[in-house]
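User: Structure please.
Assistant: Input sequence and predicted structure:
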Amino acid sequence: MTLLDTDTKYEAAQFIETYTGRAFYPLAPNIEAVSIIDIAHALANQCRYSGHTAFFYPTAQHCCLLAGYVVKTGGRAIDALQILMHDAAEAYLIDMPRPVKQHMPVFRQWDHSINKVIRSWMDWDNLPIPTWQDELDSRIIADERAQLMSRSGNDWGHQMAPLGVRIEPWTPEEAEKAFLIQYAAYSHEAYGAHQYLNADWGIPAKLYHSTASDHDEIADVMEVDVRGGVARVRLRDSEGIMVRDPSVGQFPMPDYEWVHGKYSLIESKAT
C-alpha cells in the first residue's frame, strides 16, 4: 500500500483502550472485552451527522428514542433492547457519514464483525434482527432532520415518513444514564435477571465478585455490568476513609477504580 505524505510512519497498537480500561481489537473483535458501560459511555460522547446539528445530539440518544418508540407502540422488551443496541459497534469503530461509508466496503465489514460479536455477547446468535428495525432507523432521520438541521432544501433522497419523536438537548451524561436505564430495564425483563445495576437506583441486591480463589461480597460498588464482568468501585484508603477526586468541584465525588472479573447477583426484597 502506498503511503501518503501525511500518513504516520509508525504502526500503532492494534487495540483501542476502552473507558473501563480494556483492550478492544476493532479489526479482530474480542468478545471478552465487551461491556455495556463502555458502549453507553462512548455512544453518549459521539454526535450524529458529523456534528452538523443545531445542538449536540449523541448516538446514545438516537438509540434511546428508537427503543422508546418501540415500547410505546407495543413492542416487546427484547425488540426494544435490540434496537437500543443497533449502533453499539460504533462505540468501538465510530461512525462514518453515509456518503463516505457507501464507498468503504472494508469498513462496513469491520462494523458487521463487531456487531456480530456484540450480538453473540448478548446471546443473540440465533435471534433474528427485527424486519422493521432498518425502517425505523431510517424513518427517524426525517425527525432528526426537521429538528436538528438547517432548512437548506438540499435533497437527501429520503422520502420516508417521520416517527413523530421529540428531540430535546441531552448532555453526554444524560444520554449515558438514559441508555443504561433502558438497557437495565429491557435486559432484566428479557433475561429475567439484572444485567446492569447502579447504586444510585437503590435496587435491592447483593453483589458478589468471584475469582479462582475467592467469592466475596463487594462493597462500595457504584455500578456493575454483570454480563461484561466489570464494576466501578469507590476507593478507600488504608484506614477505610473514602478517597475523593479533588478535581470535581467544591464537593469532590468519590474516586474509583474499575474491577474486572466475574460477578453474580442475589436479588433481595426491599425492606
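The mean pLDDT is 89.
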